[in-house]
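Design job #97: recover the sequence.
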C-alpha cells in the first residue's frame, strides 16, 4: 500500500504540538500566556490524532486483523504500561509500584483507546450514520463516572473523529484540494481562533478537564445539559481547527514528512524525556518568559532525536521486549 504523504505531513504537525503541549504543561501555572497556547493545542491535537488513526484503520475484524491488533497495539500497550510504571516508580521514588493496565498510564491512554476504536469500527460500520451515532455516544458518555478507568471517557469522546477520519478523509481532502485559496483560508481560521482564544482567556478561566475528554460532567462540576453544550462546542472547534490545519498541510514529501511517518515512536518515547526533566528539577530553571519561549521551541529537537535509527530501535524493543509475535493468519 502506498503511503499517504499528506497524512504523514499532517501527523508531523500533530506530533509537533503534542511535544510542545507536554513540554510546557509543568510550567503552566507560572505563565498565563502559555495557558493560551496549551488550550489552543488541546482543542484539536487529540481529536485529530484519533482522526488520523481512523484513516489508516480497516473495517475487517478477521483473524489477520486481530493478529495485527495484538501485535501492533495490545502487546506494545502492556509492555509500555509496565515499563512506564516501573520508570515512574524509580524516577520519583514512589512508595508503591502501581501497575494498572485498566487505567492507562498518562499518554498510554491513546494506545488503549486505539484498540477499542479498532474493535468498535466493525460495529459502527453496520449503521447508516455511524458518525452521528458516535457523536451521541460521545456526548452521552459525559454522564458516566468511569473517567480514566478503561480509558472509557476518552474512547467515546474522541470516537467521532476516528470515524470521520475512517469514513470521510478522502472526501474531505478532495473537497479541500478543489479550493485554490484553501491555505489562505486555513491560516486565517487558525489565526482568528487563536486571537479569539487569547482574548477569551482574559475573561474566562477554561478548565483543562474539558480538553482532555477524560472527565465526566459531574466531575467538571456542571449539569449534563450544560456539559452537552460545552462538549458540542469543543467538537465544533476541534473540527474547524482540524480542517484548517489539514488545508495547510502539504501533499508532497518534505524534510518533515519522516517525523509524521515515525510519530508513534516519537509519541511513546517523548514521555520518558518529559518525566525525566521533571524528576531532575529542570523546570525549576524556567522562571522567566524568554526561557519558556526558548524551551518551548527547543522541545521540537526531540522530533529528529526520537525518530533517529537508534531511537526507533529502542522504541521497538520497549514496545515488545520479549519479541512476542502471534502467528499471522494466512
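Job complete. Output follows.
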Amino acid at each position: 500500500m502506498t503511503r499517504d504523504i499528506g497524512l504523514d505531513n499532517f501527523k508531523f504537525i500533530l506530533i509537533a504540538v503534542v511535544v510542545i503541549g507536554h513540554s510546557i504543561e509543568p510550567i503552566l501555572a507560572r505563565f498565563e500566556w502559555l495557558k493560551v497556547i496549551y488550550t489552543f493545542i488541546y482543542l484539536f491535537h487529540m481529536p485529530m490524532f484519533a482522526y488520523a488513526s481512523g484513516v489508516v484503520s480497516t473495517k475487517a475484524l478477521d483473524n489477520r486483523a486481530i493478529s495485527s491488533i495484538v501485535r501492533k497495539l495490545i502487546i506494545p500497550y502492556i509492555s509500555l504500561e509496565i515499563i512506564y510504571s516501573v520508570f515512574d516508580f524509580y524516577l520519583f521514588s514512589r512508595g508503591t509500584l502501581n501497575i494498572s493496565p485498566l487505567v492507562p498510564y498518562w499518554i498510554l491512554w491513546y494506545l488503549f483507546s486505539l484498540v477499542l476504536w479498532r474493535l468498535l469500527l466493525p460495529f459502527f460500520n453496520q449503521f447508516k450514520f455511524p458518525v452521528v451515532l458516535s457523536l451521541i455516544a460521545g456526548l452521552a458518555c459525559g454522564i458516566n463516572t468511569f473517567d480514566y478507568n478503561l480509558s472509557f471517557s476518552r474512547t467515546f469522546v474522541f470516537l467521532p473523529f476516528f470515524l470521520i477520519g475512517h469514513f470521510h478523509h478522502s472526501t474531505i481532502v478532495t473537497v479541500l484540494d478543489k479550493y485554490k485559496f484553501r491555505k489562505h483560508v486555513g491560516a486565517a481560521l487558525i489565526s482568528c481562533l487563536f486571537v479569539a482564544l487569547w482574548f477569551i482567556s482574559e475573561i474566562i478561566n477554561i478548565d483543562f478537564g474539558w480538553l482532555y475528554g477524560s472527565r465526566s460532567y459531574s466531575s467538571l462540576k456542571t449539569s449534563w445539559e450544560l456539559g452537552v453544550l460545552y462538549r458540542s462546542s469543543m467538537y465544533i472547534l476541534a473540527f474547524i481547527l482540524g480542517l484548517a490545519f489539514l488545508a495547510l498541510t502539504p501533499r508532497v514529501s518534505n524534510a518533515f514528512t519522516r517525523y509524521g511517518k515515525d510519530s508513534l515512536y516519537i509519541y511513546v518515547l517523548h514521555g520518558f524525556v518529559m518525566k525525566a526533566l521533571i524528576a531532575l528539577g529542570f523546570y525549576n530553571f524556567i522562571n522567566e518568559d524568554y526561557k519558556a519561549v526558548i524551551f518551548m521551541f527547543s522541545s521540537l529537537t526531540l522530533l529528529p532525536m526520537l525518530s533517529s535509527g537508534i531511537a526507533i530501535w529502542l522504541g521497538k524493543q520497549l514496545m515488545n521486549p520479549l519479541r512476542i509475535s502471534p502467528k499471522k493468519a494466512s
